[in-house]
């Protein structure tokens, strides 16, 4: 699903006031259709070979084909009503070739030998036409064929197989719990994705993957009509590379945070969170407005993930560094000369950041990318020093490497694959430390949980982040809730102010379905792992205004 | 066959409706050609074209709604789509807010289609890219740009006798030009229904001039400044305020249009008295589809007059509940009508040059970037200037400025107007250049 379709569908981008519409991606189908099998793998191999042979016959020196069946289910509720249920399916083929040293791409929903042959021929024709404008031929990092392999997201319960009624009952129970605890309005939603992706290339790979993702979502609003005040508190769930087991509310996956309520790791308790959200939404209306100034920030993983995404994930995408995104998302401050120097201090010594496509339960968890490269983990920042970027087969040579990082993806069979962000995660601290231990050492600080407003410049220097809930820390203790908090900093300055990181027991993911990039824009799902982390002396502004 | 004629579309719709057994049925068909070309580093990176046609069926039993869609238009597929939609509807939970379908209405004329845009082909797109890249290469500058064009139709008919048909075209072109050393960057963007109005060379020239002029930017202290917002920059912020013109959110107390003590701010003077905002389906510079998402005819609407809020949008459900006529927002500008397109702002008679001349100390802004809501209650937004920010002193542009982060509300902005110019089409709306006092820049950015 593209982000703009999602916004149309949910209205989530509009102050979280949901206005369900029609799912723009895929054709609406029945819920039963979502658990029917697609065409079998032997048939896919035959179709894939048709594409590869047709491209070769027309002069392609390389080709890959993706046969994709994309299924989604989304359910929206508001207070005591179901607003919309949408089940969609889309099925088609994308074929990419190199001919005359140039990329060409074509896609079709006509998944027949004839349709695929024509599509492959179009891709070659486009490559040859575009070669007139090409300055240097495309050079791919080598990738050995993997033969016939499969990979599946390790799920326990296929969310598509769980009856819609069970999902609605859970959401309405959460809504009722919020209303019973003082909420004026509550919206809840569930989004479930199953991507059945088949990839084949002239390198000799035939890769069949079954990818599942799950995202429950909650927005609870409290209103004080007398004062004209209203505040919303988002749920503390996050999209995960999991099945419906994420909704089990397993006790062992509840992580008590330093503000006295539960955060969630690999399992979400929607009803419990709805109750907490209702109480906190009310509390937020009358909470103390923050005094602007310098504070030590203690950032929960569900908040910090977005900061990592914007200030580390994006600037270390090599295509941005090179200028391919200049007209849209922008370029990057993390230029090649900084990397080549070998001593660019991105962060303090304790900052170690990895990119990966392999962490279980993460959104990025995959077996292979859309170029047939086996997914892996690599270092981006080691002991605070910038050591690498995220790059794909036609770019990694620029870094002197001869193996792609395996992070090339397309958001649909009809879109062309390009470099997308891997999971970019901050490694936990090596010494035992809980968020409570961390706060004990903070004299003047703010503890921030959940995602809020986020904005960063086009080269990823200057950013401003809000959050969902804020707590004032005085002399090692939380003394109450704050409102109107946003912090501003510069990427390098901020990461160099990182002074403590909790250990692996506090490590959790924050994720998004909608990492947007490219023109036409494509969405990608990505997670960011971290433990609660402390940053010293960060500039906090007060965002209250009167109109 | 991407664009069906009115008669062809009606034939398919009527055929599908003939299979329907539900209480109410709506059949819509839309399709068209979308093309694009993208370039960066002075070379084309991707280009493509796709043709799509889709028929969608919505079936209603009581208040249970189902839908299905197909890409094939043979009789068997039409029948299957109707049957599937009806099966889904029967299993759906009731939607208590469902409003019955409308019969035929009287619709305004449409001017959304342009034959010249319909004729765009891959050669046109390639030439546009070459015309944009070549002058940049020759001047030692680096261009990155994107063109997207659309030509298509939409039609819809229902079991109550409503039938709608419209054709439309659009073209969106943007270009970022950077100096080779990365110390200067400029930008320009245009959108039209009629591509013959687009001169990509002129648009690129604007971006080139800004790239060269923005080299060697200097820092000044953040704070409150008088700003001159070019129409693109003004539009970036103003389009964000229309989500609040929704009566239901205002009535529910969760909008900046909510009144203290309950009710809405309809009738209150919220803006400077020079602010008048209307939407008008008869305006040919920003033509719009003659009907809204509910099949209601679009009508000329005064949203703000001399600073006073005159109208809020009512969905059919909320209008019935409140006993008022329904009124939709104008739509356009993408995001299913949420993009903020279709609004016409009153302007003034000053040019940007006049505004600069009368400014003792101020900042000229080309565009804003990465704008995000900070507080929905006050409509406070944050974001940054980008691709051409300049310092004005004693009526002249003195030097290029490092970019700023702002924290500002369009509501506050529209109370601090110093001057306005002639409105121009920006993102499907007509927006004037504006001179605004006390605009809040909160920090500096090193980004170019």
Automatic annotation (TrEMBL), chain A:
Keywords, sorted A to Z: Hydrolase, Metalloprotease, Protease
Sequence ranges assigned to domain Metalloprotease TldD/E C-terminal in this UniProt record: 292-540
Organism per entry: Algoriphagus aestuariicola
Recorded family membership: Belongs to the peptidase U62 family.
Domain Metalloprotease TldD/E central residue range list: 162-246
Identification of the protein by name: TldD/PmbA family protein
Domain Metalloprotease TldD/E N-terminal: 64-127
UniProt-listed InterPro entries: Metalloprtase-TldD/E_C (IPR045569), Metalloprtase-TldD/E_cen_dom (IPR045570), Metalloprtase-TldD/E_N (IPR002510), Peptidase_U62_metallo (IPR051463), TldD/PmbA_N (IPR035068), TldD/PmbA_sf (IPR036059)
Pfam families found in the cross-reference section: PmbA_TldD_1st (PF01523), PmbA_TldD_2nd (PF19290), PmbA_TldD_3rd (PF19289)
UniProtKB/TrEMBL annotation, chain B:
Domain called Metalloprotease TldD/E central: residue spans: 146-198
Domain Metalloprotease TldD/E N-terminal: residue ranges: 26-89
InterPro entries the UniProt entry points to: Metalloprtase-TldD/E_C, Metalloprtase-TldD/E_cen_dom, Metalloprtase-TldD/E_N, TldD/PmbA_N, TldD/PmbA_sf
Residue ranges of coiled coil: none
Origin superkingdom: Bacteria
Residue ranges annotated for the Metalloprotease TldD/E C-terminal domain, each copy included: 222-442
Family of the protein in this entry: Belongs to the peptidase U62 family.
Entry protein name: TldD/PmbA family protein
Organism this protein belongs to: Algoriphagus aestuariicola
């Amino acid at each position: 699903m593209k982000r703009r379709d999602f916004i149309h569908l949910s209205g989530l981008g509009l102050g979280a006031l949901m206005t369900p519409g029609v799912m723009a991606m895929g054709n609406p189908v029945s819920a039963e259709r979502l658990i029917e099998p697609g065409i079998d793998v032997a048939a896919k191999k035959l179709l894939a070979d048709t594409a590869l042979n047709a491209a070769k016959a027309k002069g392609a020196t390389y080709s890959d084909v993706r046969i994709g069946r994309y299924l989604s289910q989304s359910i929206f509720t508001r207070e005591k009503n179901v607003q919309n249920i949408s089940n969609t399916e889309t099925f088609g083929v994308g074929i990419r070739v190199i001919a005359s040293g140039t990329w060409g791409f074509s896609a079709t929903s006509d998944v027949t030998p004839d349709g695929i042959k024509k599509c492959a021929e179009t891709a070659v024709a486009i490559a040859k036409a575009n070669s007139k404008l090409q300055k240097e031929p495309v050079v791919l990092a080598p990738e050995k064929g993997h033969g016939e392999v499969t990979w599946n997201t390790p799920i326990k319960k296929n969310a598509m197989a769980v009856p819609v009624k069970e999902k609605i009952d859970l959401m309405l129970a959460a809504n009722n719990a919020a209303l019973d605890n003082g909420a004026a309005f509550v919206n809840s939603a569930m989004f479930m994705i199953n991507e059945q992706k088949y990839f084949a290339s002239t390198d000799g790979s035939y890769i069949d993957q079954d990818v599942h993702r799950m995202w429950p979502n909650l927005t609870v609003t409290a209103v004080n009509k007398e004062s004209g005040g209203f505040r919303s508190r988002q749920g503390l769930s996050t999209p995960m590379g999991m099945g419906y087991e994420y909704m089990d509310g397993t006790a062992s996956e509840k992580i008590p945070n330093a503000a006295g309520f539960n955060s969630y790791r690999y399992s979400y308790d929607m009803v419990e969170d709805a109750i907490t959200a209702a109480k906190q939404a009310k509390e937020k209306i009358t909470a103390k407005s923050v005094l602007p100034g310098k504070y030590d920030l203690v950032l929960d993983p569900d908040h910090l993930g977005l900061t990592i995404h914007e200030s580390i994930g994006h600037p270390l995408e090599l295509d941005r560094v090179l200028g391919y995104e200049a007209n849209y998302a922008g370029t990057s401050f993390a230029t090649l000369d900084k990397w080549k120097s070998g001593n660019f201090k991105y962060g303090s010594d304790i900052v170690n950041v990895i990119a990966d496509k392999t962490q279980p339960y993460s959104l990025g968890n995959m077996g292979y990318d859309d170029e047939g490269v086996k997914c892996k983990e690599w270092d981006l920042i080691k002991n605070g020093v910038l050591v690498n970027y995220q790059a794909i087969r036609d770019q990694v040579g620029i870094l002197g490497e001869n193996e792609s990082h395996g992070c090339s993806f397309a958001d649909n069979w009809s879109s062309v694959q390009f470099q997308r962000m891997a999971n970019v995660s901050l490694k936990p601290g090596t010494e035992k430390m809980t968020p409570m231990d961390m706060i004990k050492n903070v004299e003047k600080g703010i503890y921030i949980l959940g995602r809020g407003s986020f904005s960063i410049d086009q080269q990823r220097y200057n950013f401003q982040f809000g959050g969902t809930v804020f707590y004032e820390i005085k002399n090692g203790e939380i003394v109450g809730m704050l409102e109107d908090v946003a912090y501003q900093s510069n990427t390098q300055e901020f990461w160099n102010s990182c002074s403590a990181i909790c250990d692996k027991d506090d490590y959790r993911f924050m994720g998004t379905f909608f990492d947007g990039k490219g023109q036409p824009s494509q969405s990608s799902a990505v997670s960011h792992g971290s433990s609660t982390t402390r940053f010293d002396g960060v500039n906090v502004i007060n965002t209250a205004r009167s109109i | 066959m991407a664009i069906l004629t009115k008669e062809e579309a009606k034939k398919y719709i009527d055929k599908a409706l003939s299979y329907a057994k539900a209480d109410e049925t709506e059949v819509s068909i839309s399709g068209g050609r979308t093309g694009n070309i993208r370039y960066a580093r002075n070379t084309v990176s991707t280009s493509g074209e796709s043709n799509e046609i889709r028929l969608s069926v919505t079936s209603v039993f009581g208040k249970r709604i189902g839908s299905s869609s197909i890409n094939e238009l043979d009789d068997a597929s039409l029948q299957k789509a109707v049957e599937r939609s009806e099966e889904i509807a029967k299993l759906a939970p009731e939607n208590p807010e469902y409003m019955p379908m409308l019969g035929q209405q009287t619709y305004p004329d449409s001017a959304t289609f342009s034959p010249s845009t319909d004729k765009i082909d891959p050669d046109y797109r390639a030439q546009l890219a070459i015309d944009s890249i070549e002058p940049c290469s020759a001047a030692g500058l680096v261009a990155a740009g994107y063109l997207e064009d659309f030509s298509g139709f939409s039609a819809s008919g229902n079991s109550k006798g409503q039938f709608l048909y419209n054709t439309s075209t659009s073209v969106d072109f943007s270009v970022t030009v950077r100096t080779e050393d990365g110390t200067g960057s400029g930008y320009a963007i245009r959108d039209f229904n009629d591509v013959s109005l687009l001169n990509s060379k002129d648009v690129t020239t604007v971006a080139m001039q800004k790239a060269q002029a923005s080299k060697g930017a200097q820092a000044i202290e953040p704070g409150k400044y008088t700003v001159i917002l070019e129409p693109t920059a003004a539009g970036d912020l103003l389009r964000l305020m229309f989500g609040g013109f929704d009566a239901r959110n205002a009535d529910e107390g969760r909008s900046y249009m909510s009144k203290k003590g309950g009710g809405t701010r309809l009738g209150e003077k919220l803006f400077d008295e020079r602010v008048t905002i209307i939407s008008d389906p008869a305006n040919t510079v920003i033509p719009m589809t003659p009907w809204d998402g509910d099949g209601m005819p679009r009508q000329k609407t005064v949203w703000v007059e001399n600073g006073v809020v005159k109208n809020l949008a009512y969905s059919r459900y909320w209008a019935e509940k409140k006993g008022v006529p329904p009124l939709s927002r104008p739509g356009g500008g993408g995001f299913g009508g949420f993009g903020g397109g279709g609004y016409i702002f009153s302007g003034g008679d000053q040019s940007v040059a006049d505004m600069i001349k009368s400014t003792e100390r101020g900042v000229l802004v080309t565009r804003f970037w990465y704008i995000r809501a900070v507080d929905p209650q006050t409509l406070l937004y944050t974001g940054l200037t980008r691709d051409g920010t300049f310092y004005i002193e004693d009526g002249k542009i003195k030097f290029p400025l490092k970019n700023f982060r702002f924290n500002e509300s369009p509501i506050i902005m529209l109370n601090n107007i110093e001057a306005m110019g002639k409105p121009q089409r920006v993102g499907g709306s007509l927006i004037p250049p504006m001179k605004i006092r006390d605009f809040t820049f909160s920090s500096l950015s090193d980004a170019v």
